[in-house]
Automatic annotation (TrEMBL):
Pfam family, one: NAD_binding_10
GO terms for MF: aldehyde dehydrogenase (NAD+) activity
Every NAD(P)-binding domain range: 9-91
The protein, known as: NAD dependent epimerase/dehydratase
Taxonomic placement: Eukaryota, Fungi, Dikarya, Ascomycota, Pezizomycotina
Residue stretches making up the NAD-dependent epimerase/dehydratase domain: 148-241
GO CC annotations, alphabetized: cytoplasm
Matching SUPFAM superfamilies: NAD(P)-binding Rossmann-fold domains
Length: 351
């Protein structure tokens, strides 16, 4: 039975919320685990120590040796720092492989990815048509290999690396693929997500909510606490020794609803105008190149994936395991007002 879990991303939005879920669960299997968090700063380690948590310090995600060594002392790794870093992914899995060699017992790796890995551009031609994926489909891995051969994408590159390194090191891998993650996080550090707060900060800077071209790009969404519940469920199943699908078929989608970015920016515009911080309630269109500059530090590929692509993924295996998200579509819409207010408070505090 696994007894030691290593978690990356404890200071982040998703990772902090996953950690909170693991620490506050009533699940006896999870409560039996010894949990260690990977952090970069001594001050963060001190903060987590006050919560009774063990930590290990590394010099960032490129600290391959430290990550591999840390993972080699654990039975489960929950990597929710980022899904865009292939080398740290490999290091963590190699470490788990060493643990398996030492103990002779199964080891497990849970990886944060995203549905943009299977999305298609909304503003340009692509040889790949929009496909409705179920996480029960058996060819997702092969599809991603085709996509990678045509046009590498860092999140997908890391995901493929997780599966292939897991096979090489005999580590059971589980790929969690959320869409847009929204809501207020429950971690000890960062409590805001990326996509919607980015649009809000840009709106406050320019005076207008802005979306890419027509704004008809369609992505899914999931509340961060519901996503954290899925991670906790997978950890629980692993600890109890349940037979759950891993490796090339170990994909777990996490969609609970869908939105158009024009709908999101319309709500941002409405709320911002009501609060007197935007010039108009009406959103306006900008080019993908402008969006890359404003939303993604000039990275066109990343801006396209996050704000100008379409995906259609059906969550089925998570529900089969017993996942029960509690947030509704009205919660998604209401979260936009809450997030606008949170960003305004953040800016006031930093002024």
């Amino acid at each position: 039975m696994p007894s030691k879990l290593l978690l990356t991303g404890a200071t982040g939005f998703i990772g902090g919320t996953v950690l909170h879920q693991l620490l506050n669960t009533s699940d006896p299997g999870i409560k039996s685990l010894s949990i260690t968090a990977v952090v970069r700063k001594p001050a963060d380690a001190d903060r987590l120590a006050k919560e009774g948590l063990q930590t290990v310090l590394v010099n960032g995600l490129d600290d391959d040796e430290a990550l591999e060594q840390a993972a080699s002392k654990h039975d489960i790794v929950v990597n929710v720092a980022t899904g865009f870093h292939a080398t740290s992914t490999k290091s963590l899995i190699r470490g788990l492989g060493k643990r398996r060699e030492q103990t002779g017992k199964d080891v497990y790796y849970l990886h944060l990815s995203g549905t943009t890995c299977v999305s298609v551009p909304a503003t340009r031609e692509s040889p790949f048509e929009l496909r409705a994926f179920s996480d029960r489909d058996e060819d997702i891995y092969e599809y991603e290999l085709l996509r990678e051969a045509y046009e590498p994408y860092a999140q997908r590159t890391a995901e493929v690396a997780a599966i292939e390194t897991g096979e090489l090191c005999q580590v059971k891998t589980y790929i969690v693929m959320p869409p847009t993650v929204y809501g207020r996080g429950t971690g000890f550090f960062r409590t805001q997500s990326h996509q919607i707060p980015t649009l809000i900060r840009n709106a406050l800077k320019t005076g207008y909510a802005e979306h890419v071209e027509t704004g008809v790009a369609r992505l899914g969404h999931v509340h961060v606490e519901d996503l954290a519940r899925l991670y906790a469920l997978l950890v629980s199943k692993v600890v109890e020794g349940a037979s759950i699908v891993s490796g090339r078929h170990g994909y777990y989608f996490a969609d609970t609803g869908y939105h158009l970015w024009s709908e999101v920016t319309s709500e941002i515009g409405k709320v911002g105008h009501e609060l007197g911080v935007l010039k108009s309630p009406m959103p306006r269109a900008i080019s993908l190149e402008d969006a890359a500059h404003k939303f993604a530090d000039g990275d066109v590929k990343y801006a396209e994936a996050c704000f100008a692509s379409n995906s259609h993924t059906r969550t089925e295996k998570a529900y089969d395991l017993g996942w029960r998200p509690v947030n509704t579509e009205s919660d998604f819409v209401n979260s936009i007002r809450i997030t606008v207010e949170d960003v305004l408070k953040e800016q006031e505090q930093n002024a």
